[in-house]
Amino acid sequence: MAATLAGSILKTHHMSFSLLLPSPANPSSMALCSTFLPPISTHFRTPQALLFHRPISSSSTFTPISSQVSNPTAKDEFPAHVGFLGLGIMGSPMAQNLIKAGCNVTVWNRTKSKCDHLISLGAKYKPSPEEVASSCDVTFAMLADPESAVDVACGKNGAANGMGPGKGYVDVSTVDGPTSKLICKRIRATGAMFLEAPVSGSKKPAEDGQLIFLTAGDVSLYEKAAPFLDIMGKSRFYLGEVGNGAAMKLVVNMIMGSMMASFSEGILLSEKVGLDPNVLVEVVSQGAISSPMFSTKGPSMVQSTYPTAFPLKHQQKDLRLAMGLAESVSQPIPIAAAANELYKVAKSHNLGDQDFSAVIEALRSKMKESKD
């Protein structure tokens, strides 16, 4: 399995290093491997840097694999039937990219009208997750929260009822580790394979096929799903056992939510002392703390407009889940905890469906209250 995956990645993505994965039959191979072999050929591209981290489980260590996509796979290399469950802000453009790449896609959504656009592009429709999974080789799921993810996978007429040997379920939703492991257990009980693959990226990256997949679970399904991940994203990381992908995504979104809260404070402080907040956005965008998030969100925040790319209620949910993750390992995260309270205030002002940059309005409301 190790050699197969390494060979597959080298062949598909022109990696210039030989990568070793652990073998279930050889526990000693779980030791962290940081020795790279010489480049195989000078025509291979150097890959994105490999990242190493300690998995959640203390019983073993793992070498995550980073693979950066250079060229999408050709249409005739997609014999598998693909299912897609959940067609919201993220799921709809992801499924659309699969269809446009020539994949055979079957879709489902609680609100059927959200499937209509994709059906017009050539997608098939099934009335339940079970029927989608039953008719497809690999089924992707992009749901809003842990409760929805569990219900769609394990509930009545859920995808697990249509799974079986040879099939795979790839959950790209953002959930906590225990939820991901629960879904994994139910899927694997059918003889099917499971891969968690939460994404880093919002609406525009989803539309442009520039998402980052943080995967963990069955290696064979990772290999099988790789061409589809490469259509929907610009890079993918294999992080080992189920739960690691969920943890990585929560850490990323914890950082993002805290950054946005601090950025909001900066914009309002600049206004308060008589500076032009638009100039602040330019200064920040050209300095050491520059971020696409700041340069993209900043101008609209100054104008108090918040077109939704990542709903505020989802950012608050991810901060809440990150706090649970930190609590499970007794890790203090005071900055993220304070940010979470700010997002909760924003939700109480009915801003949950607006973009998460609307968190600045929670601070504005506090300023008005202090004046009163």
TrEMBL record:
UniProt catalytic activity: glycolate + NADP(+) = glyoxylate + NADPH + H(+); 4-hydroxybutanoate + NADP(+) = succinate semialdehyde + NADPH + H(+)
Keyword hit for Iron: no
One protein family per Pfam: NAD_binding_2
Gene3D superfamilies, alphabetized: N-(1-d-carboxylethyl)-l-norvaline Dehydrogenase, domain 2, NAD(P)-binding Rossmann-like Domain
Entry keyword annotation includes Magnesium: no
Keyword tags: NAD, NADP, Oxidoreductase, Stress response
Gene Ontology CC terms: chloroplast
Domain 3-hydroxyisobutyrate dehydrogenase-like NAD-binding: 243-362
PROSITE patterns on file: 3_HYDROXYISOBUT_DH
InterPro entries recorded: 3-OH-isobutyrate_DH-rel_CS, 6-PGluconate_DH-like_C_sf, 6PGD_dom2, 6PGDH_NADP-bd, HIBADH-like_NADP-bd, HIBADH-related_NP60_sf, NAD(P)-bd_dom_sf
Signal peptide, first to last residue: none
SUPFAM superfamilies: 6-phosphogluconate dehydrogenase C-terminal domain-like (SSF48179), NAD(P)-binding Rossmann-fold domains (SSF51735)
6-phosphogluconate dehydrogenase NADP-binding domain segment(s): 82-240
GO molecular function: glyoxylate reductase (NADPH) activity; NAD binding; NADP binding
Domain of life, source organism: Eukaryota
Task of the protein: Catalyzes the NADPH-dependent reduction of glyoxylate to glycolate as well as succinic semialdehyde (SSA) to gamma-hydroxybutyrate in vitro. May function in redox homeostasis and play a role in oxidative stress tolerance by detoxifying glyoxylate and SSA generated in glycolate metabolism and GABA metabolism, respectively.
Family: Belongs to the HIBADH-related family. NP60 subfamily.
PANTHER family named in the record: CYTOKINE-LIKE NUCLEAR FACTOR N-PAC, OXIDOREDUCTASE GLYR1-RELATED
Name of the protein in question: Glyoxylate/succinic semialdehyde reductase 2, chloroplastic
